[in-house]
Design the sequence.
């Protein structure tokens, strides 16, 4: 019976685009049904239970035009609570549809459903969607493609566009993974990287290689690759042998075309590149390789997935010739990521995208790790990776305590801020300045012991409507020297500059690019470096700000911004839409 209804539901889960206006009208309503369910999949001789939408991995692509309305009916057939976040969608005046678990809504209960409804306005390019509770987003994720009105691109219209979703294959159950990470256990790793769900032929079991993602091309045609990193763990280097890539967009905004042989994509980022099939007709490998800081940082296995670009008319054996594989950087060299991101600039901005020149609120935010005592003691326990501590992550020495029974937005909106749920004292600066990028902060030290004690709490920061906000993020070397892909919900920010080492407030602002900075929803704050961003707080609501490395967000590298209402109804957050389901006593939405 249950099986039957599931099959029916999946069968019916097709996208329906209804033209809202008559012939020639522009805005459409694009409607999907997402059935989220368990499925078995076998890789590397092992059958694993995974969580997917409509039987697909990666999940279905939502394909819309700028100005459309998106309606997604999510049916939760999992034994766990679930929310879906529309990553990068500005959600102007529709914070209620953001889908961030315990931030904008409580999870949809097992067997429950929820309708998300939002407009996509003034954005074009690639965004994506993913589960925003626990680690389910490793497989509950897909692309959200936004086409320009009239299909008018600022570059030659590509023959075809192809999502390239770089992810990971986990053998461990993702809910169990989440439980272990909450408990401070970070010993689990994925088995392989994936490209569009395929592990690729560099992985095999008993000599039988895994399937590779294949991109079929015709010579002379231009392809728009929409490269999205949905991985929980790593930033990736991506290359195609024998081909140059031209970066033309990121996070739903155009960029000044930038030619390169390699793209770097951190978790949370979406990078649009053009690839012209202008090489000698043959087969070519594409490679996605995870990078990581070198020792003394803790090491994880190197993850890689290899795919194939296959020209039409070339026989399967590639005419007996070896298939060229791109030469990848050393996985421990993180500088190519810095150079890549630092080379990107925005394409001339229309008026509404003008860089704010004044600053009302200035935040300097350090990103690092710390530890809390396992036994609940505030201060006394053995530090330095002893089993008496749980390693956590911090922003300005606050480790975010995720609510588990209520949502921040509902609490704020109801106007009776429950002080036991959150406070509004997220600090604008780190409490004690120190040499943030000193390598001697990485164990075995010796400097970390005094700095690692920290606390868990739910500290938010409130902003007036229309305030101009500058944030300088500083990646530290405290306990480890990872980069941090920082993602803000509900906004795009201008990335004014980035640098290696400690931010210098006297000299570094002179490097700010006010002319054509990139507009992003995720900024890859370089390893032991900084990035400066600015935005106008013109979208009221409660917006999650967090690192998109899953282990960092679980460890507490997060906060949320409250943006107050403006003076008029048009500048104020409307009441929850009729479909919105309030949080019940058990921390799940009421039926
Ligand atoms: C997956 O496989 C397990 C073990 O064989 C089985 O019990 C379970 O019903 C399967 N799940 C699905 C969704 O097919
Ligand atoms: C989306 O746009 C339509 C048409 O402009 C408008 O009526 C509707 O209120 C908007 N919906 C949301 C959720 O903002
Ligand atoms: C298969 O995966 C499960 C976890 O899903 C793991 O416990 C088991 O050890 C794996 N078996 C092999 C042969 O790798
Ligand atoms: C299978 O994988 C192993 C270990 O990665 C590798 O040494 C071997 O060459 C692979 N075999 C095949 C047939 O690809
Ligand atoms: C742009 O990339 C090149 C090649 O990696 C690098 O040499 C150069 O320093 C980068 N430019 C900037 C401004 O970082
Ligand atoms: C926690 O452990 C430390 C050191 O072992 C001990 O000094 C402290 O009293 C304990 N605190 C609590 C609340 O149990
Ligand atoms: C910590 O490790 C020590 C020695 O390995 C062991 O005796 C002790 O029981 C452990 N404590 C906890 C809280 O796990
Ligand atoms: C405030 O929130 C806490 C934690 O969710 C809850 O235990 C408590 O009952 C709430 N208090 C009020 C007055 O709503
Ligand atoms: C901070 O640490 C770095 C790396 O260890 C070192 O090169 C630099 O001189 C230190 N800066 C200061 C101000 O001490
Ligand atoms: C964080 O705060 C704790 C408690 O005040 C302090 O011991 C620790 O040194 C601080 N760490 C940092 C990085 O500021
Ligand atoms: C927002 O701020 C700008 C610049 O300070 C000002 O010109 C504008 O009138 C403000 N808009 C609103 C709605 O407050
Ligand atoms: Cu991080």
Sequence:
């Amino acid at each position: 019976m249950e099986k039957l209804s599931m099959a029916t539901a999946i069968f019916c889960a097709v996208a329906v685009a209804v033209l809202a206006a008559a012939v020639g009208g522009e805005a459409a309503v694009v409607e999907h049904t997402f059935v989220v369910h368990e499925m078995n999949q076998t890789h590397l001789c092992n059958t694993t239970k995974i969580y997917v939408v409509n039987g697909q991995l990666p999940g279905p692509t939502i394909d819309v035009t700028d100005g459309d309305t998106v309606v997604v009916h999510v049916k939760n057939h999992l034994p766990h609570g679930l929310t879906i976040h529309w990553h990068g969608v500005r959600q102007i005046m529709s914070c209620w549809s953001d889908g961030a678990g315990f931030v904008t809504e409580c999870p949809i209960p097992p067997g429950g459903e929820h309708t998300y409804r939002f407009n996509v306005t003034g954005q074009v390019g690639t965004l994506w969607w993913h589960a925003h509770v626990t680690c389910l987003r490793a497989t509950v994720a897909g692309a959200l493609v936004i086409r320009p009105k009239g299909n008018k691109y600022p570059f030659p219209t590509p023959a075809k566009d192809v999502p390239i979703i770089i992810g990971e294959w986990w053998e461990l159950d993702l809910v169990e993974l989440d439980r272990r990470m909450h408990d401070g256990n970070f010993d689990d790793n994925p088995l392989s990287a994936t490209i569009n769900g395929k592990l690729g032929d560099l992985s095999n079991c008993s000599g039988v290689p895994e399937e590779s993602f294949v991109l079929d091309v015709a010579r002379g045609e231009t392809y728009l690759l929409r490269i999205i990193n949905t991985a929980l763990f790593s930033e990736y280097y991506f290359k195609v042998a024998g081909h140059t890539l031209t970066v033309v967009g990121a996070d739903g905004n155009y960029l000044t075309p930038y030619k390169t042989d390699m793209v770097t994509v951190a978790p949370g980022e979406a990078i649009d590149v053009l690839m012209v099939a202008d090489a000698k007709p043959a087969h070519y490998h594409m490679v996605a390789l995870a990078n990581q800081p070198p020792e003394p940082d803790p090491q994880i296995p190197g993850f890689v997935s290899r795919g194939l670009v296959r020209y039409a008319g070339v026989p399967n054996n590639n005419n007996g010739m070896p298939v060229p594989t791109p030469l990848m950087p050393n996985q421990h060299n993180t500088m190519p990521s810095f150079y890549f991101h630092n080379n990107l600039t925005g394409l001339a901005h229309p008026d509404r995208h003008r860089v704010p020149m004044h600053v009302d609120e200035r935040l300097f935010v350090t990103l690092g790790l710390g530890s809390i005592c396992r036994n609940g003691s505030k201060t006394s326990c053995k530090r330095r990776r002893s089993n008496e501590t749980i390693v956590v992550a911090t922003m300005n020495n606050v480790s975010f305590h995720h609510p588990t029974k209520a949502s921040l937005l509902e609490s704020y909106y109801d106007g009776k801020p429950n002080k036991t749920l959150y406070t509004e004292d997220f600090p604008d600066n780190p409490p004690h300045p120190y040499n943030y990028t000193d390598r001697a902060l990485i164990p075995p030290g010796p400097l970390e012991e005094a700095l690692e004690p920290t606390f868990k709490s739910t500290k938010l920061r409130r902003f007036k409507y229309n305030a101009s906000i500058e944030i300088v993020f500083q990646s530290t070397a405290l306990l480890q020297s990872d980069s941090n892909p920082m993602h803000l919900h509900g906004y795009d920010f201008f990335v004014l500059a980035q640098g290696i080492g400690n931010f210098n407030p006297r000299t570094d602002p002179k490097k700010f690019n006010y002319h054509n900075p990139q507009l992003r929803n995720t900024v890859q704050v370089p390893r032991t470096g900084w990035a400066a961003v600015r935005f106008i707080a013109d979208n009221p609501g409660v917006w999650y700000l967090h690192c998109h490395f899953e282990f960092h967000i679980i460890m507490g590298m997060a906060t949320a911004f409250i943006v107050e209402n403006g003076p008029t109804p048009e500048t104020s957050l409307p009441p929850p839409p009729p479909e919105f389901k309030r949080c019940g006593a058990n921390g799940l939405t009421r039926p």
Q: What stands out?
A: The longest strand covers residues 28-43. Residues 468 and 536 are 5 Å apart (CA to CA). Confidence is low (pLDDT under 50) at residues 1-24.
